[in-house]
Amino acid sequence: MDTFARLLKESWTLVEEDRVRLTEHFYARTFLLDPELRKLFPVQMSGQGDRLLEAIIAAIHTVDDPEGFDEFLRALGRDHRKYHVDAAHYDTMGEALLDALRCTAGDGWNLAYDQAWRDAYAAIVEKMLAGAAADTNPAFWHAEVLTHERFGSDTAVFTCRALQHPLSWKAGQYVSIEAPRYHPRVWRTYSVANAPNDDNVLEFHIRTPAGAGWLSGALVRRLQPGDLLRVAAPMGSMTLDRSSERDILCVAGGVGLAPIKALLEELTSFNLTRWVHVFYGAHTKADLYGLDGLRELVAAHPWLSVTPACSDDPDFDGEQGEITDVVARYGPWTAHDCYVSGSAPMVRSTLRVLAADEVLPQRIRYDTFGNL
């Protein structure tokens, strides 16, 4: 690891356990430096700090991969067009971020850390602005809700059509969504649950358990056909490697099924030789809302198998236990391309299983967006 990356990761350990203080200080300082910036953020700021931290953590984790670091930041710049930020805004937020890092880290902070973060932030902003400048698409798409179906009390599947401009995405990617009618200026990321199509129609799977955000709650309980949403530019690299001839393992937990379903749809358009094994887990049978659709795909495509599992339903006649334990029992998966989607704990557990099978990291693509 070079000195630059080491300093960033080393300094981050000084603040990562005090994220609430870090983000509160960052936003307070930002709005003090430029009160006009407050208008770009939601009225209710709860959860907004998590978005900032996710971006910082993702940038730190990709700093050792120059190509991945570059693409991630360019995509982030394209995505941030929806907030109407400009170069001056980035300067203000950079000053606020450095101040927040210094104050949160305390005596452990030093000049080397400070300079590393200044250099890192300058590189981040340069790439984000370049990504934004190169994008010829709109800052976001208006989309009309077409269908909305509830599954139990906390899960919904809905479709919407992007209006006016074609929206191009790859199976496995995610987008940010805003519902201006319900929560203006609140954007959250959700995986697209279908492969690209000529009709400009996108499908989403949303779950809103206790403690979930306001936007997810509105999308599950209040959204209805005819509503207008805003959809930002697609992001994410959990996409198919069409050049590979290896068989495929897909592991989905809960509404983590969404990008896996999109990948399967794409595979149905060209795959003939690669075996595809899908493991789909939830707490109870009632939570396996997408199982019937998966079984229809199995009936139509002999290369596909689906293994459902429940962790808290002794009456379920399929596999019992956490989905990661079930995947481990069916391994090893050393010769497969692997795709994993679900909650962060579920993804981490699955990555440990795959590491034990000595699956090469470059053959694993994963998504931790639980659509919460």
What can you tell me about this protein's structure?
A six-stranded antiparallel β-sheet has the order 4-3-6-1-2-5. 39% of the residues are buried. The protein folds into three domains: 3-134, Globin-like (Orthogonal Bundle), CATH 1.10.490.10; 141-231, Beta Barrel (Elongation Factor Tu (Ef-tu), domain 3), CATH 2.40.30; 248-367, Rossmann fold, CATH 3.40.50.80. The chain starts with a helix and ends in a 5-residue tail after the last strand. The longest helix is centred in the N-terminal third of the chain and has 24 residues, at 111-134. Helix 2 (19-33) crosses helix 3 (48-62). It has 372 residues and is α/β, with parallel strands linked by helices. Helices cover 40% and strands 19% of the residues. Pfam families: FAD_binding_6, Globin, NAD_binding_1. Residues 1-133 form the Globin domain.
Lay out the secondary structure.
Layout: H1 3-12, H2 19-33, H3 48-62, H4 66-79, H5 87-105, H6 111-134, E1 141-151, E2 155-162, E3 174-178, E4 187-191, E5 201-207, H7 214-221, E6 228-231, E7 248-253, H8 257-268, E8 276-282, H9 291-300, E9 304-310, E10 319-320, H10 323-330, E11 337-341, H11 344-356, E12 364-367
Parallel strand pairs: 7-8, 7-11, 8-9, 9-10, 11-12
Antiparallel strand pairs: 1-2, 1-6, 2-5, 3-4, 3-6
Helix pairs in contact: 1-6, 2-3, 2-5, 3-4, 4-6, 5-6, 10-11
